[in-house]
Design goal:
By secondary structure, this protein is α/β, with parallel strands linked by helices. The protein is built from eight helices and five strands. The protein has a five-stranded mixed beta sheet with strand order 1-2-3-4-5, sandwiched between helices. The protein is globular and about 50 Å long. It binds NADP nicotinamide-adenine-dinucleotide phosphate.
Length: 254
């Protein structure tokens, strides 16, 4: 995770590239739901508007690790924490409408093995490496289910919510993950290209009020078949609310 110096360096790079000095960076650790709640509180206290929320966070190889909240670490960082953060910021997004939420998912969601039993429990019937990969894919399916869920819930408020696959990209994320890096290492794009889909979904006029869609290469793409199972998606949503300990006050739409 980035430390204070990394944050200052990132801010300096953005200011230099854009000539915009109005850039604020903040530290938030998604392995702690308390930290997510504090971060959301600060944003709501300090910002009058929130036009775009990009849930870009993604980790891969946290294995069977548990967080301080007792949740499976990869699932918490990739899914439970962004799920909670989006709930906590949805009133600010609604106040700033029309506004947009984006979940950076992965085409890997198509290879998921998500069940209600394993959402917070890696499947022990698989070898460790494979189990990590499947938990990652499960978490990326949850991103799509969550984006679709918020798309429905926030429709009345004119907040759109979509998900995307950024393409195989040469980032720290990929190089840390030998299982993925080895077979695809020669075919990956640079980080700037990898960010293009997020920028497009955040800013492009032609997206209009499209919501609940999944994008690859800036084009709408079919979604994993399981997302048409509304009972399953609702159960994933309810389980996620339970695991993050969502209170009535925090719920995005009552
Ligand atoms: N790279 C690919 O080929 C690929 C393919 C498909 C999907 N994706 C998805 O693309 C997204 C971005 O990944 P990337 O490739 O750009 O990798 P990356 O450079 O490693 O970015 C991952 C981001 O997650 C943040 N993060 C990691 N642990 C965190 C924690 N505990 N709390 C808060 N933030 C944390 C990192 O923050 P720091 O900068 O502070 O470490 C970083 O900003 C992910 O959702 C990933 O699943 C990537």
């Amino acid at each position: 995770m980035a430390d204070k110096q990394d944050l200052t360096n990132s801010r300096d790079k953005i200011v230099k590239a854009t000539n915009n000095c109005n850039v604020v960076t903040k530290h938030v650790d998604f392995t702690s739901l308390t930290c997510v709640r504090c971060f959301a509180k600060e944003i709501k206290e300090e910002e009058e508007r929130l036009d775009v929320l990009i849930n870009n966070v993604g980790v891969f190889c946290l294995g069977k690790e548990r967080t301080v909240d007792g949740l499976q670490a990869t699932m918490q960082v990739n899914h439970f924490a962004p799920f909670l953060l989006t709930h906590l910021l949805s009133d600010l997004l609604a106040k700033s409408a029309p506004s947009r939420v984006i979940f950076v998912s992965s085409i890997g969601a198509f290879f998921h093995r998500l069940t209600l039993a394993n959402i917070n429990n890696p499947d022990v019937s698989f070898a460790d490496g494979l189990s990590s990969l499947l938990v990652y894919y499960n978490s990326k399916l949850c991103n799509i289910i969550t984006a679709n869920g918020f798309a429905k819930k926030l429709k009345q408020c004119r907040v759109t919510c979509n998900s995307l696959h950024p393409g195989m990209t040469a980032t720290t994320f990929l190089w840390k993950n030998q299982l993925l890096a080895k077979p695809v290492g020669f075919f990956v794009q640079g980080a700037e290209m990898g960010a293009q889909s997020s920028v497009f979904l955040s800013a492009a006029k032609e997206i209009g009020d499209a919501s609940g869609k999944f994008f690859v290469d800036m084009r709408e793409h079919q979604q994993p078949r399981v997302v048409t199972d509304s009972q399953f998606c609702e159960a994933v949503w309810t389980a996620s609310e339970y695991f993050v300990g969502l209170t009535d006050e925090e719920r995005s739409i009552k």
